Amino acid sequence: NLREALVEAATTLIAEKGPEGFTIAEAARLAGVSPAAPYRHFRDAQALLAEVALRGFERFAAALAAAWNNGRPDPLRAFEAIGRAYLAFARNEPAAYAAMFEARLVFDDHPPLRTAGDRAFAVLRDAADRLVAALPRERRPPSLMMALHVWGLAHGIAALFVRGGPSRRKLPMSAEDLLEAGVLVYLQGLGLAGGPMAGNAGTE
After folding, report:
1. Closest by CA position to 85, among listed 115, 123, 113
2. Which positions ≥6 away from 54 have C-beta within 8 Å?
3. What are 119-132's pLDDT values in tens digits?
4. CA end-to-end span of the chain, whole Å?
5. Residue 198: strand, helix, or coil
6. Is it the case that residue 168 has pLDDT exceeding 90?
7. What does the alpha-carbon distance between residue 138 and residue 56 come to, in Å, rounded to a whole number?
8. What gap in Å lies between CA 92 and CA 63, rounded to an integer?
9. What is the pLDDT of residue 201?
């Protein structure tokens, strides 16, 4: 299966050289085919890179959805599990993560890629919707804003403390503990996790 072999070769090269460090000819050589063979499936290296990113987003969305588990055993713990799943993906799938977030792909040029990315974000948006529903209506923050804030926090911690390379900073704790503490402080500020405001959560 030439298409699968090329995606696998590209993933290997991205892991070794980064998302901008490979050519389609290198992917062909690693897949054991002629330099012209990849063009039956991909117009250029960017298209092959987009396919790696697309599959990454699909697995990413599935991992986040599994962690959320429809808010079980309770929305707060499930929300924390999403953060752990985010960092686990960045750690365990570095090539896919690099293609998804570090390759500077133009998502508008690859509509399926944008759709897959939106599907992953939708898990976090759904979780935020469920959490804010516990607050009185007049005190509910915009769930989109909340989802974006938490996404940014998770992404920043992944970039600084999980992704490989000599620039990665060292922590006196795990990245998961740092993210969990940051999310907890954020949710407390919204009255969603402990603190004086949370005592009224769930009352309308």
Report:
1. 123
2. 110, 112, 113, 116
3. 999 999 999 999 99
4. 57
5. helix
6. no
7. 38
8. 12
9. 41
Q: Under a CB-based contact definition with an 8 Å cutoff, are residues 57 and 113 in contact?
A: yes
| Cα–Cα nearest to 57, from 180, 128, 25, 49 | 49
Q: How many CB atoms lie within 10 A of CB 131?
A: 25
Query: Which position has the token pair 């990413």?
Result: 60
> How far is the C-alpha of 204 from the C-alpha of 194, rounded, in Å?
18
- In this model, does residue 198 exceed pLDDT 90? no
CA distance linking residue 164 with residue 39, whole number of Å: 32
Q: Please give the single-letter amino acid code of residue 50.
A: A
DSSP per residue, 141-169: PPHHHHHHHHHHHHHHHIIIIIS-STTPP
Q: Give the span between the Cα atoms of 167 and 35, in whole angstroms.
A: 35
Per-residue pLDDT band for 163 (boundaries 50, 70, 90) equals confident
Size of the chain, expressed as the number of residues it contains = 204
Radius of gyration of the chain (CA): 20
Q: With contact defined as beta carbons under 8 Å apart, do 90 and 158 qualify? A: yes
Identify the residue whose tokens are 């500077």: 104
Q: Cα–Cα distance between 68 and 78 in angstroms, integer? A: 5
* Cα within 13 Å of Cα(38), Cβ side: 26
